[in-house]
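Design job #97: recover the sequence.
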């Protein structure tokens, strides 16, 4: 005899699941105001940087790039805190990053130093912009599977910070960027290539921002703000240039023998994973050995 009640319950469960999936899908496709407003502010800052550089206001252009970095850091965090993530927001944020950290720094450095270098100048700027696009595309395909402790390649906001801070320092000291066109062209190309490299950069996502700290840490933070306010251009340039150099150093220290795939190539880096597993195994064996020694001492 057919159990009609069982099939009725089964159909009811299926209907509820379909309704839930439809609701979740509609929620993900929605457009939330607050995070997208912050993304728009970052996009505006990047566009303003381009316009300012075209008018010869390179300090304003550089500052606008850093303001775009602040908004870029806020929109994602605000979306997670307010539970307003959406597919539209993720795609919009990626497009805004391309303008603020790809096109804007490329055009700013081109207008400041590379416009008199002929074909080399605009090709150097194009290499940077293309590498920023490739970096963002690779990052979007690795969401959820990449190691959160590290970035694969220099992040596009950090690369924009390198270019923007150097232009800011040069403009503050009233240097003629065209006199350093060759050097800036090389720096622009190298910075772009670092974005698409396999060098590992610390993401600082393991820092516990919600944890408690002692009074000295708060005092140090205040002093850091004072130093930044006194000479922001020089300090930001030092920070971002050192961070850009940290990737190759971190990678070289983490492998026994540097290979081509550690620098550029396939996304899947087996040697890194093998090294991490080996380090974890050695750490566990060391702890076991220490525990055995303690047990023998107690005996």
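Job complete. Output follows.
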């Amino acid at each position: 005899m057919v159990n009609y009640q069982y099939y009725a319950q089964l159909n009811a469960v299926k209907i509820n699941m379909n309704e839930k999936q439809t609701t979740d899908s509609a929620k993900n496709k929605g457009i939330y105001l607050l995070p997208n407003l912050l993304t728009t502010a970052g996009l505006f800052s990047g566009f303003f940087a381009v316009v300012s550089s075209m008018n010869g206001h390179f300090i304003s252009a550089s500052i606008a790039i850093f303001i775009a970095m602040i908004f870029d850091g806020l929109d994602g965090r605000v979306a997670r805190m307010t539970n307003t993530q959406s597919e539209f927001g993720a795609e919009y944020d990626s497009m805004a990053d391309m303008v603020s950290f790809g096109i804007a720094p490329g055009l700013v450095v081109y207008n400041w130093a590379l416009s008199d270098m002929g074909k080399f100048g605009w090709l150097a700027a194009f290499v940077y912009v293309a590498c920023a696009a490739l970096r963002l595309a690779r990052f979007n395909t690795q969401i959820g599977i990449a190691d959160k402790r590290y970035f694969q390649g220099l992040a596009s906001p950090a690369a924009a910070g390198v270019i923007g801070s150097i232009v800011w320092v040069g403009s503050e000291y009233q240097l003629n960027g065209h006199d350093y066109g060759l050097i800036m062209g090389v720096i622009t190309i190298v910075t772009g290539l670092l974005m698409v490299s396999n060098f590992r950069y610390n993401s600082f996502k393991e820092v516990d921002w919600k944890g408690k700290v002692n009074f000295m840490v708060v005092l140090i933070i205040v002093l850091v703000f004072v130093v930044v306010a006194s000479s922001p251009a020089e300090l930001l340039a030092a920070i971002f240039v050192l961070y850009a150099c940290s990737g190759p150093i971190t990678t070289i220290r983490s492998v026994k023998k540097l290979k081509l795939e550690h620098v550029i190539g396939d996304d899947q880096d087996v040697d890194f994973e093998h090294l991490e597993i080996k380090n974890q195994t050695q750490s566990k064996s060391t702890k076991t050995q220490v525990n055995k020694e303690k047990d023998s001492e107690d005996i």
